[in-house]
Write a structure and sequence with these properties.
By secondary structure, the chain is of the alpha/beta class. It has 35 helices and 33 strands. The protein folds into 4 domains: about 240 residues, 2-Layer Sandwich (Dna Ligase, domain 1), CATH 3.30.1490; about 100 residues, 2-Layer Sandwich (D-amino Acid Aminotransferase, Chain A, domain 1); about 130 residues, Glucose Oxidase, domain 1 (3-Layer(bba) Sandwich); about 250 residues, Alpha-Beta Barrel (TIM Barrel). The strands form 7 sheets. It has an 8-stranded mixed sheet with strand order 14-24-23-16-17-18-19-15. Strands 26-27-28-29-30-31-32-33 form an 8-stranded parallel beta barrel, surrounded by 5 helices. The structure holds adenosine-5'-diphosphate and magnesium ion (MG) (2 copies).
C-alpha cells in the first residue's frame, strides 16, 4: 500500500486513495484536489493516516518503506520548486502539517519554515535579498519547533522576545531589525540548549523526521483526546502528515496571509468573508497576535474600519482570490473555508475544506444552494447536521429588553448566553458541575480551554478575530461567542476584570449576544425562536423524504404544545408519574403508598382520579386526535416517599395517623435496589387498584374529549417493565375490564390499544410470545441499555467517560444506542413481534429517540416511529429523513 502521495507540480493526483480523506486526511485530499483542478498550490506530499496508526501501534518507529518513500517525495518537491532541502546556498523550506479525516481546529500543531539552520538562513537571506525576513523566519521556526516538537514552553521564547523589545525601547515586533532577530536566534538556541542539554537540531533531516513524529504523536495528546471524545471521533482514524513547500506572506508589503469563507459562516449570506494581514505568516491571523483586516471593501466600510481591505490594497491578488472562490464552490458544491498566502503579489492556496457554520447559516446555504441549482433537495437535507438545529430552537435575546451594554466585540457565534463570569476553563467546568450557568471570559482561548468552553453557556475573549480559535470552536459547539472585545481586560491574579468602564469580579453575571457582539451587565430576558423561513422549508423537504413518524415524550399540556409546534405527530411516551409530583397531589400519592391496606389505598386513589382525568383530558385536547401513548405508573414507590420530618408531619396531619407509624411503614417499604425492585408492571400486579384508577382516568378523559367533537381520541395504554407474557395478559385484562366499565357508564365506545414497553432483555427475547398480548411495542432503550449492559444509568458517570476514552464503547451508550449489543435485542424483538402480529406498531421512546445516529438504526430495523423530547422533535424529523435517503 502506498504510504506517501505527492501533490502540486507534475504530480499525478489520479489515485483514488489520494482523493480519499480516510487515507490522506481532509487537508491532504483537498490540497491534491485543488492542484488537480489547476489551482496554485505549493508542491508537497502527504503521508497516509495508516502510517500514523502503524507508528503509534508499533512502538513509535518509522518503517524503511516510509523513509525511502518520503525521500523520493521530497525529491519531487525539490524538483518542482527548483531548490534543495538543506542547501546552504538556496534552501527549500517546508511546512509540516497534520490533517485528520475531519478538521480538528487547532488540535494538531503545524511547524513552518522547517529546513532552516545556521547555514541555510544565510542562503535564504541571500536569495531573498532580505536579511530581516530570513532571521525572522528562523526565529519563528526555532520557537515553533521547540514548542511543538521538543516540548519546550513557548513562554520562554516570548519572554526573551519581550525583554529584547524592552531593552531596545520597542513596542511592536515590526520594529525589530535583522540584527535584532539574529541576536534573538542566538538567545533562542541558548534557551534550547539550556533546557534540553543538547543543541537545537541543525540537521534538516533530523528536523523533518522530528516534526513528522510530533504530528503522529499529537494524535494521542490529551487535547486531541478531549476533542475526539466530544465529537465522537474514533481513535483508529489516525492523522495524515502534509509536508509542503513554504510560501512566504512575510516578504514585505506585497505579501500577505489570510483566511476566508466563500459565504458568511455566521449568517449564510452569499458574500465573501474573511480576514487577512499584510506581511505576516499563517498563524498570525488565527492566533490573534495582530488584529486582522477585512477582506472586502464592503465589509470594511460596514464595520467602519480604517485599515484597507484586501480588495482595496491588493486588487489583483484579490481578483484572483475571488475567481478561486467561485471555482471552488462550483467544484465542491459547498461553502469553502480557505487559507491562502500572497507571496510578492502571487496568490497561493494552502487549504480548503467545507467550512464550519452556524445552524442558521447551514440552513440558509442549503436552501439557497437548491435555489441556485447548485445542489438538490436530498443533498440539502443531508447537508444540515440535525444536532446543529438545536442552536436555532433555543431562545434569543428579547429585542425590547433593556440592555446595559458594557462593551462590544465581534459577533463570532450567534445565540444569547447569560451566566456568571469565570476566568479559566477548570473553574468553568467546576461551577457548571454545580448546575451554575457560566460565561467563560479569556484573553484568548487555546485548545487547552476546550473543556471549559464546553461547560460554559457562552464565551467572551478580549483578543482574536472571527476566525480565532474561540470563534471557530464556539461555532462548532453551538455556543454563543463574542471575540476580540478589546474593552475587556482581565486581572487573573485578583480574579477581577474590567469590561468597558465597569469593574467586575469572577461570579458576576453578564449576558452575551453572539449575533451583535454586545456584552451586557446582568441577565437579559430572552424570546422564543422563529421557526418559519429556511427552517420551515428544510423541514418540509425532510417530511417529504422520511418514512418514520416522529412523536414526542411529553406529559404537560405546555410540552405537548411546544412539541406540536415543532411538528410532533403524537405522543410516544407520557409518563404519568410526573403528574404525581404536583404540589396538591403528592400528599394523596404518599397516602396511597403508605396506606396499610387496599381500602386505604383506594381512598387515596379516589382523590387522585379526578386530577389524572383532568391531566389526560388536557393532553388529549392539545393533541387533537393524534395518537397518545400513556404509560401506567412505572417508578419505584420510594421516589414519592417523604424524607424530611416536616413532610412526615404534614402527612400525619393530613391522614390523622401518627408520625412514628408512617416512618415505620416507610422503612418497611425500603428497597436495596429499587430500579430492579418493586416498580413498573410489578406495581400493577400487586396493587391493581393503582392501574385501575389510571386506566379509568384515561378512558373517562378520552370519552369526555371525544364527546366534545373533533377527532376521536385513540388512547394507547402502555404497560412498563414487562418481562413475561403472563404479566401483560393479567394487566391487559384489567385495562380491558375498566374500559368496558367506563364505556358502559358513558354509553359509548372508543378504539384503544394496549401494548407494552420492551425494556428488559427477557422481554426482547420473549417478544414473539408477548406480542400475542400486545398491540404495540415501544422500546424503552434507557432501561434496556441499563439492564442489558448491567450498568446503572444513575451511577455510570463515574466510569463511562473513561470507557469512552479507552474505546470500550465508542459513545456513551445512554446517549447513542449501543447498536452492536442492545441493537441486537431490539432487532430480535422486532422480528419476533412481527412474526406473531404482522401489524404490531413499533416505536422507541428512550432518550435515543432524539439521537440522530440511533434514529438511523431505528430506520434500518423498520420501526414505525421515534419519540423524542419536544426540543428534539425537529432534530428527529431531519435525522429520520436523512436515515431514509
Ligand atoms: P491548522 O490545521 O491548525 O489550520 P495548518 O496546517 O493549516 O494548521 O497551518 C497553520 C498555518 O500555517 C495556516 O495559516 C497555513 O496557512 C500556514 N501554512 C501551512 N503550510 C504553509 C506553507 N507551506 N506555506 C505558508 N504557510 C503555510
Ligand atoms: Mg489550516
Ligand atoms: Mg423504563
Amino acid at each position: 500500500m502506498q504510504t506517501v502521495y505527492t501533490f502540486g507540480g507534475n504530480a499525478p493526483h489520479e489515485d483514488e486513495r489520494q482523493k480519499d480523506k480516510t487515507v490522506t486526511g481532509g487537508k491532504g485530499a483537498n490540497l491534491a484536489e485543488m492542484a488537480s483542478i489547476g489551482l496554485p498550490v505549493p508542491p508537497g506530499f502527504t503521508i497516509t493516516t495508516e502510517e500514523s496508526v502503524r507508528y503509534l501501534n508499533e512502538g513509535e518507529d518509522f518503517s524503511d518503506t516510509l523513509r525511502s518513500d518520503v525521500a523520493e517525495a521530497l525529491t519531487h518537491v525539490e524538483q518542482t520548486v527548483g531548490k534543495r532541502f538543506g542547501d546552504a546556498g538556496d534552501p527549500l523550506l517546508v511546512s509540516v502539517r497534520s490533517g485528520a479525516r475531519v478538521s480538528m481546529p487547532g488540535m494538531m500543531d503545524t511547524v513552518l519554515n522547517l529546513g532552516l539552520n545556521d547555514e541555510t538562513v544565510q542562503g535564504l537571506a541571500a536569495t531573498s535579498g532580505d536579511k530581516r525576513f530570513a532571521w525572522d523566519s528562523y526565529r519563528r521556526f526555532i520557537q515553533m519547533y521547540s514548542d511543538v516538537v521538543l516540548g519546550l514552553d513557548h513562554g520562554l521564547f516570548e519572554e526573551a522576545l519581550e525583554i529584547a523589545k524592552e531593552d531596545r525601547g520597542y513596542f511592536s515586533d515590526t520594529e525589530l531589525e535583522a540584527d535584532d532577530w539574529e541576536g534573538l536566534v542566538t538567545e533562542f538556541k541558548d534557551i534550547v540548549e539550556r533546557e534540553l542539554g543538547k543543541p537545537f537540531p541543525q540537521d534538516v533531516n533530523e528536523q523533518l523526521w522530528g516534526a513528522i513524529a510530533a504530528v503522529f504523536d499529537s494524535w494521542d495528546s490529551d487535547r486531541a483526546k478531549v476533542y475526539r471524545r466530544l465529537n465522537s471521533i474514533p481513535a483508529e482514524w489516525g492523522t495524515a502528515v502534509n509536508v509542503q513547500a513554504m510560501v512566504f506572506g512575510n516578504m514585505g508589503d506585497s505579501s500577505a496571509t489570510g483566511v476566508a469563507f466563500t459565504r458568511d459562516p455566521s449568517t449564510g449570506e452569499r458574500a465573501y468573508y474573511g480576514e487577512w494581514l499584510v506581511n505576516a505568516q499563517g498563524e498570525d491571523v488565527v492566533a490573534g497576535i495582530r488584529t486582522p483586516q477585512y477582506l472586502t471593501k464592503a465589509a470594511r466600510e460596514n464595520a467602519g474600519a480604517e485599515k484597507p481591505s484586501m480588495e482595496e490594497a491588493m486588487p489583483d491578488a484579490f481578483g484572483e482570490l475571488a475567481r478561486v472562490f467561485d471555482l471552488l464552490e462550483s467544484h465542491y458544491k459547498d461553502m469553502q473555508d480557505i487559507e491562502f498566502t500572497v507571496q510578492q503579489g502571487k496568490l497561493w492556496m494552502l487549504q480548503t475544506r467545507s467550512g464550519k457554520r452556524t445552524a442558521k447559516a447551514a440552513l440558509k446555504m442549503a436552501v439557497d444552494m437548491v435555489g441556485e441549482g447548485l445542489i438538490d433537495e436530498e443533498t440539502a437535507i443531508l447537508r444540515v447536521d440535525p444536532m446543529a438545529l438545536d442552536q436555532l430552537l433555543h431562545p434569543t435575546l428579547d429585542p425590547d429588553a433593556r440592555r446595559d451594554v458594557l462593551t462590544r466585540g465581534l459577533p463570532a457565534s450567534p445565540g444569547a448566553a447569560s451566566g456568571k463570569i469565570v476566568l479559566d476553563a477548570d473553574t468553568a467546568e467546576e461551577w457548571a458541575k454545580r448546575e451554575e450557568a457560566v460565561v467563560l471570559v479569556r484573553v484568548e482561548t487555546s485548545p487547552e480551554d476546550i473543556h471549559g468552553m464546553h461547560a460554559a453557556k457562552g464565551i467572551l475573549t478580549a483578543r482574536g478575530g472571527m476566525t480565532s480559535h474561540a470563534a471557530v470552536v464556539a461555532r462548532g459547539m453551538g455556543r454563543p461567542c463574542v471575540s476580540g472585545a478589546s474593552g475587556v481586560s482581565i486581572n487573573l491574579a485578583e480574579r477581577t476584570l474590567r469590561i468597558g468602564d465597569r469593574e467586575l469580579t469572577e461570579g458576576d453575571v453578564i449576558t452575551l449576544d453572539g449575533a451583535s457582539g454586545e456584552v451586557m451587565a446582568g441577565e437579559v430576558p430572552t424570546i422564543e425562536p422563529e421557526l418559519a423561513g429556511d427552517f420551515g422549508v428544510l423541514m418540509e423537504w425532510a417530511d417529504k423524504h422520511r418514512r418514520m413518524n416522529v412523536r414526542t415524550n411529553a406529559e404537560t399540556p405546555a410540552d405537548c404544545r411546544t412539541a406540536r409546534g415543532f411538528g410532533a405527530e403524537g405522543i410516544g411516551l407520557c409518563r404519568t408519574e410526573h403528574m404525581f409530583f404536583d404540589a396538591g397531589r403528592i400528599s394523596a400519592v404518599r397516602a396511597m403508598i403508605l396506606a396499610d391496606d387496599e381500602a386505604g389505598r383506594r381512598a387515596a386513589l379516589e382523590r387522585l382520579l379526578p386530577e389524572q382525568r383532568g391531566d389526560f383530558a388536557e393532553i388529549f385536547r392539545t393533541m387533537a386526535g393524534l395518537p397518545c401513548t400513556i404509560r401506567l405508573l412505572d417508578p419505584p414507590l420510594h421516589e414519592f416517599m417523604p424524607t424530611r420530618d416536616e413532610e412526615f408531619e404534614a402527612l400525619s396531619d393530613d391522614l390523622g395517623v401518627g408520625v412514628d407509624h408512617l416512618k415505620r411503614r416507610a422503612s418497611e417499604l425500603h428497597e436495596f435496589n429499587p430500579m430492579l425492585g418493586h416498580r413498573g408492571c410489578r406495581l400493577g400486579i400487586t396493587f391493581p387498584e393503582i392501574y385501575e384508577m389510571q386506566a379509568r382516568a384515561i378512558f373517562e378523559a378520552a370519552c369526555e374529549v371525544t364527546g366534545e367533537g373533533g377527532e376521536p381520541v385513540v388512547p394507547e395504554v402502555m404497560i412498563p417493565l414487562v418481562a413475561t407474557k403472563r404479566e401483560l395478559a393479567i394487566l391487559r385484562a384489567l385495562v380491558d375490564r375498566v374500559a368496558e366499565e367506563v364505556f358502559a357508564e358513558k354509553g359509548t365506545t372508543l378504539d384503544y390499544l394496549v401494548g407494552t414497553m420492551i425494556e428488559l432483555p427477557r422481554a426482547a427475547l420473549m417478544a414473539g410470545e408477548i406480542a400475542e398480548e400486545a398491540r404495540f411495542f415501544s422500546f424503552g432503550t434507557n432501561d434496556l441499555t441499563q439492564t442489558a449492559l448491567g450498568v446503572s444509568r444513575d451511577d455510570a458517570s463515574r466510569f463511562l467517560g473513561e470507557y469512552v476514552d479507552k474505546g470500550i464503547y465508542s459513545r456513551d451508550p445512554f446517549v447513542s444506542l449501543d447498536v452492536d449489543g442492545v441493537g441486537q435485542l431490539v432487532e430480535l424483538a422486532v422480528e419476533r413481534g412481527l412474526s406473531t402480529r404482522g401489524d404490531i406498531k413499533l416505536g422507541i421512546c428512550g432518550e435515543h429517540g432524539g439521537d440522530p445516529e440511533s434514529i438511523g438504526f431505528c430506520e434500518e430495523v423498520g420501526l414505525d416511529y421515534v419519540s423524542a423530547s419536544p426540543y428534539r422533535v425537529p432534530i428527529a424529523r431531519l435525522a429520520a429523513a436523512q436515515a431514509a435517503l
